[in-house]
Amino acid sequence: MMDTVHQHARMYGYRRSLLPITRLYSPEHIIDSLTDIHRADEGTRGLLLKNGRLAVKPVWVGPHLKPTRANVLNPAELRAVVGDRTIYPRSIVFEKSRLEKLLPRLEERLAAFQDPDDYYDVPIDSMMDILNLIPSGPHPSATWSDERVRQILLAMKTKPIEIQMGRINVRRGRRHSTDGFDADRKKAEEGRSAHGYAEGTQVNEAKALYPKQPILLLRKQKGERAKYWGGHPLYVPTLIIPEIGFVFVFVSD
Question: Is the pTM of this model over 0.85?
Fold first, then answer.
């Protein structure tokens, strides 16, 4: 229960002098849950300080985190993705047998996006169609799930947000290469990269250029087995949530 964690957290403010000798040992999934609660709380506080008001949009439900007791608040209404945040799949489909069917269709969709420095203006529906061809797998501590991302994008299209267009950037390798990048799958899957497969400099650039639109960054990977892939090229997504006065609220599925 998220509200129980917040209640217990009251003690921290009175024991700052004990921090140098305090250690917490915990399973990774509990640390991930505490991190999610912290991000949701700080994101909400930040929006309130910035805008003076906050609109909340329920998006997704699942069993791992609950906001409070069911008789206090419908558990269909909580966890949060805040604006100006970067999300990406921690587990992505990379098996050769599946990619052989998906990649030709995806390449056809991406054929119009050849300039690696351009952020093309596209309908949100087109972004969703492209993401449908880049399926991800389940990951217990990840913000990204395919259906959740679809619901977030759909919510952006509806009132009161009403964003109909997003941006897409496709990069197929360094310099003039189109064979793909050499990212290590395990590094992103274990959450050791803040932006997934995208570079931090590109994420910052995209946010500065288009702060009010969702931005889909796609990077082609060589998919080599030495980097823990399946021996077939593939594209990996990173999605930047725009700066809007909304928190998209859900619970992990």
Answer: no
